[in-house]
């Protein structure tokens, strides 16, 4: 896990995630990021750790029942599904709004040259 460009405080905060017994704690950055998002939402009271665990477990069981491959892509999709479901249940953000924002991000990503930061137009910029 690269910490280049981080301040010392942020770098120290990530050290426990960098390795476990000399092995990387996470295979991909998104794994740490997804768990950090879930933890932040739990810590801020949006939903409980038990609800998060149950939602992720249900998403994984559903993926297995649907014949999804046992790989990181499936796990990632299950994490997203669980987080989106809990956010929709416990906030004013609904699934159509999440889907619309995901579509906006996808379009921005596809329109962005390689190596450049993705810029998402604000709702004022696109008339919505």
Describe the structure concisely for a colleague:
With 128 residues, the chain is an all-alpha fold.
Please give a structural write-up.
The chain is mainly α and 128 residues long. It is built from 5 helices and no strands. Helix 2 runs parallel beside helix 4 (72-90). The protein starts with 7 loop residues before the first helix and ends in an 18-residue tail after the last helix.
Strand count, sense and closure of the main sheet? Answer: none
C-alpha Rg (nearest Å): 17 Å
Q: Give unreliable regions as ranges.
A: 1-6
What is the molecular shape?
A: globular
On the 0 to 100 scale, the average pLDDT is 82
> How many strands in all?
0
Estimated share of beta-strand residues: under 5%
Question: Which descriptors apply to this entry?
Answer:
disordered N terminus; globular
Helix and strand layout, with pairings?
Elements: H1 8-18, H2 29-43, H3 49-65, H4 72-90, H5 95-110
Helix pairs in contact: 2-4, 3-4
